[in-house]
């Protein structure tokens, strides 16, 4: 059983409405849906749900009115959130999933947060960070929120002793790393598009040349990030640590049902393995296993440990495609070790 608490901040939460299409979407027609499911969402909320589903302790912090449907939905799942009240209802995001696994997302704009609301959220996160193992700052920022707010929060939390993970993109990601070491998190989880943007190179170049990807990751370490979990969708993930550790993981072949929340579940898997005291290679294995399990489920469902198979994940020393990875397989630490976004079975 994992020990320690995970606090997540979701500044831009959502109700995630997944609509299952009977076939490819055709504009202008009438579609009779196969199914429709609503889950509490937002990247930090998804991380908290996955941690809780594994028996871990998670505290989701978010802006929401007392009687907002997302509050009741989380409470029903055994995750009563810590909320800061806002006047508007939480947004709804729509995901259209086709039978072949194609996913189309329609995201509503979030609720603008006042300076007072942001300050209250920061106080709530800091309060619950005391005695916790991890704080996760995850997702986009609502309209009007300063891009450097995550960097400010990292600096605010630094003296609590909690470890800080950040998963964001665009201006908030760039601002996080522009603030110097005071804003650098312990763990950063970019995908290939986000890392390429930070490095100022085309994504295709980063994916096609391990040396380019490794150079981009090393820049993050030079800026103060201790661990980088680079997710590569169906190609697995890479873990790099500031002390020179480097591993890559290949997922099992799966039939993708929905990619919504797969990256969040990857992060949750990594944190769960860390809480259990696993070494870096096993943390990566569990991250990839959790993302794969998530992608094989419908909508934004999060996997339980019974749905996660770490033994199907191949972990190698070095970058994918490098000479080291062809010879340095890392076996699982034991059976049922634990699953991230997997390759589509075509």
From TrEMBL:
All residue ranges annotated as the Carbohydrate kinase PfkB domain in the record: 29-305
PROSITE patterns linked to this entry: PFKB_KINASES_2
UniProt cross-references to Pfam families, sorted A to Z: PfkB
Region of interest: Disordered: 320-346
One function term, GO molecular function aspect: phosphofructokinase activity
Superkingdom of the organism of origin: Bacteria
Keyword tags: ATP-binding, Kinase, Nucleotide-binding, Transferase
CC annotations in GO: cytosol
Similarity section: Belongs to the carbohydrate kinase PfkB family.
Protein name per its UniProtKB record: 1-phosphofructokinase
Lineage: Bacteria, Bacillati, Actinomycetota, Actinomycetes, Geodermatophilales
